[in-house]
Amino acid sequence: MADADIKDFLTALSAAGVKFVVVGAYAVASLGHVRATADFDVLVEPSASNATKLERAVREFGIREGAPGRGGPGVVDW
Fold first, then answer.
1. What's the CA dihedral at 68, 74, 3, 57 to 10 degrees?
2. pLDDT digits (tens), the chain, 78 positions
3. Most buried residue, 3, 44, 54, 72, by most Cβ within 10 Å?
């Protein structure tokens, strides 16, 4: 995922009011411990109201149902 895509995705999550945190290598990098990664990890609050907001955010960002992915439920790879 390109840096511009990450920014746009985080903007979509925030604009929709999604409760989330960035985890993984990007979170660690923000603390000054840079390591190579090819993915971007986000943990969202598992609630019905947050799921509705998340759906709106990912659709706004451009992810549609049936997007290609290798992960299990709740994982989208592109």
1. 100
2. 678 888 899 999 999 999 999 888 677 667 787 777 767 889 999 999 999 999 999 888 887 665 555 555 555 554
3. 54
Show the tokens assigned to 28: 């660690």
The full DSSP string for the chain is --HHHHHHHHHHHHHHT--EEEETHHHHHTTT-----S--EEEE---HHHHHHHHHHHHHHT--TT---SS-TT----
Distance of CA 53 to the CA centre of its chain: 13
pTM score, whole prediction: 0.71
What would you measure as the largest C-alpha separation in the chain, in angstroms?
36
